[in-house]
Amino acid sequence: MINNIVYAQITNPALSGDLGKGDPSNVFGRYIGTFWGLAYVIGALIFILYFIWGGVEWIMGGGNEDRITSAKNKISNGILGLALLAGSWALIKAIGYVLGIDVLENLTIALQNLAP
User: Fold this and answer.
1) Contact (CB, 8 A) for 113 and 26
2) pLDDT single digits (tens) 62-74
3) What residue spans of 61-110 are helical by DSSP H?
4) I need a surface site. Which of 7, 60, 68, 74 has the fewest CB within 10 A?
């Protein structure tokens, strides 16, 4: 009980939000959740850029079959990447639902107290 009060008062000013506060045994879990959220945002941005790149290449192809095929491949690969991203999100959510944890929001990894 006393340890939780002490942990609640420890803050790290270099970390924004709730990452620098609270129980230090759960910091690893919060980093994993934050990493997953960041990975999804970066993946979505890459999809948008790749999809636009393929569309622009298709428009600028000027009837050249090689450039149009390359553009179609970029668009197809972008859609496949988005499908994989959405599938991984659904899989993470399903695993979290079955195990009763929310991996993307409040992942808690309890570390054992090694102090005597």
Assistant:
1) no
2) 889 999 999 999 9
3) 65-99
4) 60
